[in-house]
Amino acid sequence: MNTPAKRKLSPIAKLAIDFGPLVVFVIAYARFDIYVATGAFMAAIAAAMAVSWALTRHITLMLIVTAVLVLVFGTLTLVLHDPRFIKVKPTIVYTLFGATLMWGYLFRKPLLALVLDAMVHLTDEGWRKLTLRWAVFFFVMAVVNEIVWRTQTESFWVNFKLFGFPPITFIFMALQYRLLMRYATDEPNPQAEAEREEVS
What we know:
By secondary structure, the protein is an all-alpha fold. It has one domain (11-198). It is built from ten helices and no strands. The chain has helices at residues 11-31, 34-56, 61-80, 84-106, 112-116, 124-151, 154-163, 165-175, 177-183, 190-198. Helix 1 (11-31) runs antiparallel to helix 2, helix 4 packs antiparallel against helix 6 and helix 6 (124-151) packs antiparallel against helix 9 (177-183).
């Protein structure tokens, strides 16, 4: 039986799936408290996965991992009535992705296309350089989250999740443009494509 081809999301739909749950979290926190916001966040990210599957019959690895950790740490936050669990969740997510990419970099496995669901084609050298940069970036973001939630108010941390982390990520992505242009190729990297197809 043939596997149906993955359908592409429109840019607006992708943004809604990627950042909609975070917007829900911030709005719910502004109107209620961290516990209601956590419950709303859990429901919203589950809905984002359902919408992604309904529209494309595909869920990115990053969304799956993030959703699992949100549900686990969100449940701990609500059951134990301790917001530290949901606050440390981004640290775990960033560290996990950073470690995964660093492992791929050290063992020459192009895992970046898998983690980011990337559609660009790069040479082997391009993938290695971009992988190392993203691995370091994720580790730095993990440290930033720890500093923010441990030293700032809860309200500041909640807002930083929406108005801090995404802009920093977009700026970092923009700074990779020259590397992408330098190492871009018309031919797909066979190993990178194989890694993606294994979880498709």
